[in-house]
Amino acid sequence: MFYFIIRTSFVHVRQTIAASQSSNLLIFKRPIGLRLFSNSSNGPSFTVSYLINKCGFSTEMASRVSNFVYFETPEKPDSLIVFLENHGFSQTQIANLIKKQPRFLLSDTKKTLLPKLEFLYSIGFSRPELAKLLSSYPYLLKSSLKKQIIPSFNILRDLFQSDDKTIKAIKRFAGILVRDSKSYLYPNMNVLRGIGVPESNILMLLYRHPRKFLYSPVRLKEIVEEVKGIGIDSSTKKFLAAVIALRSMSKSTLEKKFDVYRRWGWSDQEIREAFQRYPSCVTASEDKIMAIMDFLVNKMGYHSNLVAKQPSIFSQSLEKRIVPRALFARELLSLGLVSNLTLSVLFDTSEKVFIRMFVDRFVNKAPDLLKLYKEKRKISEKN
Fold this sequence. Notes:
Number of strands: 0
CATH architecture of the domain at 39-144 and 151-166: Alpha Horseshoe
Keywords: Transcription, Transcription regulation, Transcription termination, Transit peptide
Family: Belongs to the mTERF family.
Protein name: Transcription termination factor MTERF15, mitochondrial-like
Organism: Gossypium arboreum (Tree cotton)
Pfam families: mTERF
């Protein structure tokens, strides 16, 4: 019987690895035979029960996590949970960390985790900040402190010349500390330098969007050449906005969005000019583009080509800004308080400026304007 169980386990491991390799994803699971050999078949394993009772996992989630970690006593997992609680992690944050990195349940917290937390505290992270960061990106705790985390931090600090900026960049994406700088960060920076992007703009991009420097330098070079070919000056901040926009989607997705604009009568030249004016117009979803165009063209009567000249509209909320302001503007026109409103003034101004320009300005002539505007917002939000 013992020989049969071990042989079954060996066959299962080979089948699991072969199936995983065929899909380019290698996942190691605990052999079923060994699990049966060490647990009662009359109920869930100790690991599953622990994850349900101690971590609040559903049966399904606990079973899934148990494929990647196995223990028969609570000492080590208890030690991890107490360790994280002592460092300010909430129950939800602990659960998130365990879901993403189940093997931490078997870690030696004092030897492998504590030194990394102490270093991150020493450079300026507070306990709440670190709990939030590590629960969303626990992979950071798997990296070598001396070989990876500290050298990466020093590289970023040398670039920013500021501990504060370095910490804020890490908060935006902790992966910047664990990826090889020689393979990603430096080559991507050199791609941007080589096409004429000022160093100040490169550092601004690294500070605001550190994730963008962790992709293939080959793909980045393709994108910057495309943006330059469109006619956007590489020395401007708009150039980087265009790079970010194109980097956020595949070519096929981008083409689908262009097709949506074409359906509304935009020529390829108008699409190109819209992208030049406001590159983020291509980051709106296809559904959002359709909804905004439908409202402005079919319900408000704006010409489609007029909207093409104000592409920043597609970064605004349809429900919270575009609809209530458009409906309110129609009321102003019907009252004869205004004769014409450009799309930029109507939709791109801040809420404070909009109220000053179109509510406070006419308060003597129409004292109920503010109430009317608030009603338009409520109607829009309900719909």
